[in-house]
Amino acid sequence: MSLNVSVAADEPIVDPGAPASSDRSGFEWSRVIGPAAVLVIFVALWHYMHSDGMRRFFDKPGFLLPAPETVINDAFLNSLARSKLLTGLGWTTLVALTGLLITIVVGVSLAVMMAQAKWVERSTYPYLVALQAIPILSIVPVINSVFGGGISSRLFVCVMISIFPIVTNTLFGLTSADVGQHDLFTLRGASRRTRLFKLQLPSAMPAIFTGFRISAGLSVIGAVVGEQFFRKGSKPGIGIVMENYRQKGIYPQTYGGLILAAGLGIAMFLVFGWISKRVVGHWHESARKTT
Questions:
Q1: Contact 95, 154 (CB under 8 A)
Q2: 90 contacts: CB under 8 Å, gap ≥ 6
Q3: Would you say residue 286 has pLDDT above 70?
Q4: pLDDT at 177 over 90
Q5: Which residue has the higher pLDDT, 17 or 103?
Q6: What is the pLDDT of residues 82-104, one digit of tens each?
Q7: Coil, strand or helix: which one is 269?
Q8: CB atoms near residue 126 (< 10 Å)
């Protein structure tokens, strides 16, 4: 008994495992409509808090939270304020990227050593957890006395805040390679170096870049927080500019700097997401599930 199945030439073959899309081009409108709707709600809530919410809920005057249009006009359309904010943003970006680069090198190297030797993991992991839990304010005097309060101190804060996600995600990826693949490498007598570079690191790439994306935003936080505590030197970042405006009671420019700092964190997160897609591509199972 034979079964003949015919398919029309002009009828597309649908992969049951392929993700559904909102139109033929595969563009998902929820990626635009959802964030736009949240932005509208946020701006409306912001405007309400300026006009009535601050007085009603916090018993504070409305000028402490200027209206969105005031922030745009005074912080971004005013050439002098815009110049100061963008210059500060440039220094903060430099510190955040440098701190993140240092964190990536140190964090990935430490995770590789922890994956290769269990005693290294047992010896260092508790201190990484402790480092993550230490409030920055409590060790500001120590950082200031060691690094002098300049850019070096800001870099140390960036590394301190952002190293934990990179180490944990990289270690998780390195130790999560398929057991069957490990057995195959063992049967072929592969060296530890070959196993690391041919199996563990490729399998860990999605987890590694997840750690990079998380730490990218944390590095921006570390740079801004470091600027709040360590203000020496001739390189005022966005945190220092914001603090100067706040001390003078100029709140529109303060909120403008906050918006720029948040935008920098989002931009770095998106950039590492883009790099992750280019590096991982569609070869990994996790990439196929999310694309």
A1: yes
A2: none
A3: no
A4: no
A5: 103
A6: 999 999 999 999 999 999 999 99
A7: helix
A8: 10
Euclidean distance between the first and the last CA atom of the chain, given in angstroms as a whole number = 41
Give the C-alpha separation, 254 to 65, whole Å.
10
The pTM (predicted TM-score) of the whole model is 0.81
What is the Cα–Cα distance from 121 to 110, expressed in whole angstroms?
9
Q: Residue 136's CB: how many other CB atoms inside 10 A?
A: 17
Amino acid letter, residue 142: V
**255 contacts: CB under 8 Å, gap ≥ 6:** 65, 66, 71, 75
Distances (CA, A) of 98 to 84, 168, 258, 269, 286: 21, 21, 21, 15, 29
Q: Which residues contact 157 (CB under 8 A, 6 or more apart)?
A: 99, 136, 143, 222, 223, 225, 226, 229, 230
pLDDT for position 282: 58
Residue 23 tokens, joined: 């139109």
